[in-house]
Amino acid sequence: MSGESLTIKTPDGSFTAYVARPTAANAPAVVVIQEIFGVNAVMREITDGLAGQGYLAICPDLFWRIEPGIDITDHSEAEWKRAFELFNAFDVDAGLKDIQATIDAARADPGCNGKVGSVGFCLGGLLAYLTATRTDVDAAVAYYGVGIDKHLTETVSHPLLMHVAAEDGFVPKEAQAAIHAVLDANPKVEIHDYPGRDHAFARPGGEHYDAGDARKAGERSLAFFKAKLG
Predict the structure, then answer these.
(1) What is d(CA 82, CA 214) in angstroms, rounded to the nearest whole number?
(2) Fewer beta carbons below 10 Å: N end or C end of the chain?
């Protein structure tokens, strides 16, 4: 396993992605979809961890259209301010095109066996949900996605696992209820609620990090990918 940089070309320009490779020469791939802090140490650690579990893991720089190479933390007021500026400037539709380009690049990689999943957190959680509605991803995992309730008219056509923080400050109870009302009956969707947990409970070092539920969500995600991607 080693971290490397990959350049992905699109009709709008090129962007980079952080790549971590497993020891196996041929493996399923997982696209890691960033939070609002860019491809930072937390995202790279998640990418490395997936490679350690046997996946070709790729984390694309989805803020490249605004500013390439964003790498900030949640540890200062200035960084939070910048993160929300990026969140507000982000074009979701363009981001989904970039994710599809990343999925295509993963499938074209000699180290990929053709199966590609996605996992996203926060903003990335919304984007992971949308990969299950708009892309040809084989399976998607969404952690505390923000704004999913605004996209519930879209058809989930690929297997989707969702982790919902019951006390999420960015996902109100009404939004959570709407998600359950629409998606609970969908056989392609599996939703887990985490009572007492706030947004980003799985972000190491974050204000709301909970080691127990982060581990539980991680184990569920890996079991899901094993079942859907092999």
Answers:
(1) 26
(2) C
**Which of the following is catalytic: 168, 198, 210, 213?**
168
Joined together, the tokens standing for residue 50 give 């997936």
DSSP 57-97: EEEE-TTTTT-TT-B--SSSHHHHHHHHHHHHH--HHHHHH
> How many CB atoms neighbour CB 208 within 10 A?
16
pTM of the model: 0.97
Task: Kindly tell me if the per-residue pLDDT of 230 is higher than 60.
Answer: yes
d(C-alpha 61, C-alpha 16), whole Å: 6
Q: Per residue in 168-221, pLDDT tens?
A: 999 999 999 999 999 999 999 999 999 999 999 999 999 999 999 999 999 999
User: Would residue 75 show up in a list of annotated catalytic residues for this protein?
Assistant: no
